[in-house]
Amino acid sequence: MQKMAKKCVFLDRDGVLIEDVGYLKNPENIIIMENSFGALRTLKDAGFLLIIVTNQAGVSKGLLSVEEVGKVNKKLLSIYELNGIHIDDLYFCPHHKDGTVEPYNISCSCRKPETGMVDRGIEKFDIDVKNSFMVGDKDSDILLAKNSGMKSFYIKNDMYEHDKNIIPDYTVSSLKEAAEIISSL
Ligand SMILES: [Mg+2]
Ligand SMILES: [Zn+2]
Questions:
Q1: What are 100-147's pLDDT values in tens digits?
Q2: Which ligand is nearest to the CA of 91?
Q3: Considering the entire predicted model, what is its pTM?
Q4: Which residues surround ligand 2, an ion (CB under 5 A)?
Q5: Which domain covers residue 39, as residue numbers?
Q6: Residue 1 falls within a domain, yes or no?
Q7: Which residues are known to be catalytic?
Q8: For residue 90, is it within any domain?
Q9: Which numbered ligand comes closest to the C-alpha of 157?
């Protein structure tokens, strides 16, 4: 039998799974989006891998450490695991070309909308990118989806400016709404 490539939902972290509080250092300060539990279960039940891809340029700016980002990520994954939701992987980009902290102050190929993090997931899990999705709350998430050849879900918000010329495949009010659409396609 031919092995089927897997489909995946790539998820932004801040503003999608947890409140975007900016440069989150302390796992105790994670505010998880309550509707994310049901949404992620819906996606898992529909057969999707779940991979988190998050820009954390605060590392390059000296505002938080790689270790602090790692602790927050580990805590987030453990909260989901305790609720029966396995996140298949998580990648973060600590870089920014205008950063001050070496070796992170570089222009990299993993900072969204560049595709490095998604490429890593595709390679590791043999992902069928054309049948995969990106859910995020910034233009860089929409552009990442376009650059990778995925469909994009943009979660409407007032926190970040949205360029009307950058058009997502779907505009939704929450991850829950995105999950309902994805699972019905
Ligand atoms: Mg975000
Ligand atoms: Zn990077």
A1: 999 999 999 999 999 999 999 999 999 999 999 999 999 999 999 999
A2: 2
A3: 0.96
A4: 93, 95, 108, 110-111
A5: 8-184
A6: no
A7: 12, 14
A8: yes
A9: 1
Q: 142 C-alpha vs ligand 1 centroid, how far in Å? A: 11
**Which ligand gives the minimal distance to the CA of 106?**
2
Tell me whether residue 179 is in a domain: yes
Segment 14-18 long-range contacts (CB within 8 Å, at least 24 positions apart): 14/54, 14/137, 15/136, 15/137, 15/138, 15/155, 15/157, 15/159, 15/160, 16/135, 16/136, 16/137, 16/155, 16/175, 17/52, 17/76, 17/175, 18/76
Ligand 1 centroid distance, CA of 156 (Å): 11
Structurally, how many domains does the chain consist of? 1
Each residue's pLDDT tens digit, 150-173:
999 999 999 999 999 999 999 999
Which of the four pLDDT bands, split at 50, 70 and 90, describes residue 3?
low
Q: Would residue 3 count as lying in a domain?
A: no
C-alpha of residue 83 to centroid of ligand 1, in Å = 23
| Contact by Cβ (8 Å): 30, 72 | yes
